Amino acid sequence: MTQNVTLIGFGAIGRTLLQRSAGQPGLRITHVVVPEAHAAAAQANAAALQADIAIVSAVPHDTDLVVECAGHEALTEHVVPALLRGTECAVLSIGALSEPGLPEQLADAAAQGGTQVHLLSGAIGGVDAIAAARIAGLDAVTYTGRKPPSGWRGTPAEALADLGSLTEPTVILEDTAREAARLYPKNANVAATISLAGLGLDATRVRLIADPTVTENIHEIEVRGAFGEMRITMRGKPLPDNPKTSALTVLSALRFLHNRTATVTI
Ligand SMILES: NC(=O)C1=CN([C@@H]2O[C@H](COP(=O)(O)OP(=O)(O)OC[C@H]3O[C@@H](n4cnc5c(N)ncnc54)[C@H](O)[C@@H]3O)[C@@H](O)[C@H]2O)C=CC1
Ligand SMILES: O=C([O-])CC(=O)C(=O)O
Questions:
Q1: Percent above pLDDT 90 for the chain
Q2: Residues in domain Aspartate/homoserine dehydrogenase NAD-binding (predicted)?
């Protein structure tokens, strides 16, 4: 039986996800939720990719699965109500979970609806290893996020440095993951994800760097604990439509969707 999927958000991630999910057996993206003001543009873009897609302002009650790729507001506006109705949801705007009370709100809504909310690994790998290692106890988790200056446009980094004329790597934040997610919500999903898998938002140390010498989004993660040590560097190519977002983010959502219907999941 085909599972009907609703996307929340139709920006760089949503568009690429719709494009790449075409023909995936057992799944069909039937609806896309966007704010009213973006509906006409989304309709034109989506119809070019899939003629029968419906652009809507709320998640339909009969959808089987929701994938959120919209931003912080969409979690309270759309994901919480869907969970309360018992609809399983997968979330990419993990930075939003730095807002006090929101993780508990999502968990309570899923419990009330008798369903699950999945926090996707997004732009990075190794989330499974961090979450497994946590069971035996972690000592330290640190994260360094490095992006080209264009990846920091429209953020508080603009007030700290002249992004257009940087000649060397410039640290724009050195703090906890909670502070990183509060100040740079669209650039701290990774910081929030590794915190939630590991030591939590207040005990995870984060450095964010605007680096004119790189063209990729570079994520360095170091973890120490009873399990041993782990060091990962991801050099993610950004999506053409949004330099803040690594292309792997879309692939992580596709993997999640694939595993919904695969006989062997990995
Ligand atoms: N977990 C991870 O590793 C990553 C997560 N992200 C997050 O994924 C989200 C989407 O990223 P992009 O597609 O690159 O952003 P984008 O800015 O290109 O697109 C956002 C889309 O969401 C829609 N939207 C905004 N508010 C909405 C609401 N309340 N309800 C429904 N739709 C709404 C907009 O109309 C737009 O279509 C962002 O929150 C971003 O921070 C991005 C990269 C990595
Ligand atoms: O690389 C990405 O796609 C996004 C990113 O840094 C983040 O939100 O932490």
A1: 92
A2: 9-119
Of the candidates 193, 225, 224, which has an alpha carbon nearest to the alpha carbon of residue 206?
A: 193
3-state helix, strand, coil in the chain (%, to 5): 40, 30, 35
Is 189 among the annotated ligand-binding positions?
Answer: yes
CA of 210 to the centre of ligand 1 (A): 21
Catalogue the E-assigned strands of 128-248: 138-147, 170-176, 205-210, 217-225, 228-236, 238-239, 242-246
Give the ipTM: 0.98
Ligand nearest to the CA of 13: 1
Ligand 2 atom having least distance to the Cα of 184:
8
In order of 190, 198, 235, the CA distances from 214 in angstroms are 18, 28, 10
Q: Read off the pLDDT of residues 85-122 as tens digits, 9 standing for 90 and up.
A: 999 999 999 999 999 999 999 999 999 999 999 999 99
> Among residues 238, 239, 184, 177, which one has the least CA distance to residue 202?
177
Ligand 1 atom 42: residue of nearest CA = 245
Listed in sequence order, the residues at least 6 apart from 209 whose beta carbon sits closer than 8 Å to its beta carbon are: 144, 145, 146, 147, 169, 170, 171, 172
Q: Which tens digits make up the pLDDT trace of 245-263? A: 999 999 999 999 999 999 9
* Cα–Cα distance for residue pair 91/172, rounded to 1 Å: 27
Nearest ligand to residue 154 Cα: 1
Residue 4 is assigned to a ligand binding site:
no
Mean pLDDT of the chain: 95
